[in-house]
Amino acid sequence: MKRVLSIFAAALMAVTVFAGGSKEVQAAPSGAIDKAAFDSLLASGVTASDAEIKASEWASAVKKAGVLRLGATRTSYLFSQLDETDNKVRGFDAGLFQLLTKYILGDASKFELTQVNSSTREAVLQSGQVDAVFATYSITPARQKLISFAGPYYVSKQGILVKAGNKDIKKIDDLKGKIVATQSGSTGPALLKEYAPKATVQEFKTDQEARAALEQGRVNAYVTDYTLLLNSMVKNPGVYQVAGDVFGPEDNYGIGVPLNSDAVAFINEFLKKIEKNGTWEKLWKVALGDRTGISSAPKAPEIK
Description:
By secondary structure, this protein is α/β, with parallel strands linked by helices. The chain has helices at residues 2-13, 35-43, 50-54, 57-65, 92-105, 121-126, 141-144, 188-195, 207-215, 226-235, 263-276, 279-292; strands at residues 68-72, 75-76, 80-83, 88-90, 111-115, 132-138, 148-163, 179-183, 200-204, 221-225, 240-242, 247-257.
């Protein structure tokens, strides 16, 4: 895990200003995704056998419906971003859910996307509105009482985002007495209570709202998943910087499914297949590595 974090730290340093604010470093790549490479990877995705589909009640229902109903986002630049020029969604999470769509239905385009945020992810699953949620979704004991998770498929920690040039906040202890944004329904509020108990926390429904508050000076910092901070940095070079080191426990990103669904076993087998045949690593490279200037892919997390 240290290797993964050091890789992302290098990428962040490539698009930000040092904490002291006195020296700028060379900008990272623009962050644009290679559309042709991404689309080609989807086209090469594996498909499940009829026997594998029939063995899963969840997958059988999706197959019968002819569409995979997904809770996801269209606004996460590196993980799941809508391209309005061709109406396609691309990124790391988007690649995974389209590969899963192809795995079940033989066609990566046969999905319906319901926009979700940190506050609505459990609700859309519990109501039966969607079949699965892909949204940089941290696996936590509290959430596991309401829904089930396949995976993990990715690992992250927490980070602190501040405006470029900020010299006051260099580490987690510097949040004392500061107004700090985080997303409601995320792991952020609980982690801030533990690691920065003397900060004043303001919760926002979406990442965009939290970053807007930071840019407008209504909050002093924004705490969220480190990978989402990378997302903001690459998309908005020169606007933000990351203060200090990552902190908190490792966040394991999982795929949310209905509670006690056999989707867990089915999706885990899918994840194991794409990790073993190299598709996970290729997707990481196209969706994250090439766009941030990171040359070495991390090891995929173990799926139990």
